[in-house]
């Protein structure tokens, strides 16, 4: 019996151990990264599809690991969430991005900034006062900030999420539902929650040119959201045909590689300057 146990361990343990060790190492590195300038923020334009003007940017975190190179957020955000490092990480992104936003706005561009929140923030009663303090530090009007939350983030503890969202909105900060359509119970909380913006997930948007069902889903989602008085952002626009199709659906804001890849703050400044003189 003991031998059986041993065999099983020797069969399954190594893989498990490597993953665990790997994860722990990455986590330790992330802790270091937070204190040593390895994390930076890039900004992806959000564009009014009717006149192609930049109306906002989404802040996206990047990790330039000294040995591994660029680690994608999909790999380290979950680690940050599980370990609690997501709190200092979000604080860093918020602070960095608000500083850039203040600069852009000082140049005369009344754009909005969107920052991603994790599920953990929606049960953190300290969030509203931290957001208020960050806005005050950079002297940015609260209405220029949009916080993006996901359906799954809300559903993990709906009552507390409701409360945090309400307090954040009382500051004048706006709330967007990110990746809309990929979670559950969407319609019920659209009715109940007070939100400002809906971001239609890229998995529907990027295929509206060749998937009739996706087109139907996006068309009715946009109609519903606009009828509810929400701002609509379509994510994952990768070609001009998609822009044309979305234009026909009403007043939609677009985001995607075709309209602008995530870029350094200087790239956004240059883009805004170009638009100002155009
Ligand atoms: P998300 O919030 O849905 O962000 C949009 C993602 O789609 C970004 O990936 C962006 O680069 C990518 N994207 C934009 N346009 C296109 C397109 O046309 N085609 C395709 N295929 N992709 C496009 P990224 O930057 O790798 O971020 C991945 C996810 O990581 C984000 O998804 C978000 O959930 C998370 N994330 C990124 N930055 C942060 C952050 O600062 N805090 C938190 N909590 N999560 C973040
Ligand atoms: Ca987002
Ligand atoms: Ca998204
Ligand atoms: Ca996503």
From TrEMBL:
Segments forming a coiled coil: none
Segments of skewed composition (Basic and acidic residues): 269-278
Superkingdom of the organism of origin: Bacteria
Keywords: Membrane, Transmembrane, Transmembrane helix
Residues in EAL domain copies: 23-276
Protein name: EAL domain-containing protein
């Amino acid at each position: 019996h003991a031998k059986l146990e041993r065999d099983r361990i020797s069969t399954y343990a190594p893989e498990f151990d490597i993953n665990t060790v790997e994860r722990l190492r990455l986590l330790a590195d992330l802790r270091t990264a937070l204190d040593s300038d390895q994390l930076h923020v890039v900004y992806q334009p959000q564009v009014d599809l009717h006149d192609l003007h930049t109306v906002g940017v989404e802040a996206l975190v990047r990790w330039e690991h000294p040995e591994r190179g660029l680690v994608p957020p999909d790999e380290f955000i979950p680690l940050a969430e599980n370990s609690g490092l997501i709190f200092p990480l979000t604080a860093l992104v918020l602070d960095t991005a608000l500083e850039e936003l203040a600069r852009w706005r000082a140049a005369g561009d009344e754009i909005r900034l969107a920052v991603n929140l994790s599920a953990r923030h929606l049960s953190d009663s300290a969030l509203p006062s931290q957001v208020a303090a960050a806005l005050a530090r950079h002297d940015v009007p609260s209405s220029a900030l949009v916080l993006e939350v996901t359906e799954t983030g809300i559903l993990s503890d709906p009552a507390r999420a409701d409360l945090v969202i309400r307090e954040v909105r009382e500051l004048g900060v706006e709330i967007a539902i990110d990746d809309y359509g990929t979670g559950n119970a969407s319609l019920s909380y659209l009715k109940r929650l007070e939100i400002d913006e809906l971001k239609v997930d890229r998995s529907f948007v990027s295929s509206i040119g060749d998937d009739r069902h996706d087109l139907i889903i996006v068309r009715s989602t946009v109609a519903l959201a606009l009828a509810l008085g929400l701002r609509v952002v379509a994510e994952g626009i990768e070609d001009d045909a998609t822009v044309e199709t979305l234009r026909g659906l009403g007043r939609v804001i677009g985001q995607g590689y075709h309209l602008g890849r995530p870029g350094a703050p200087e790239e956004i400044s240059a883009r805004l300057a170009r638009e100002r003189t155009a």
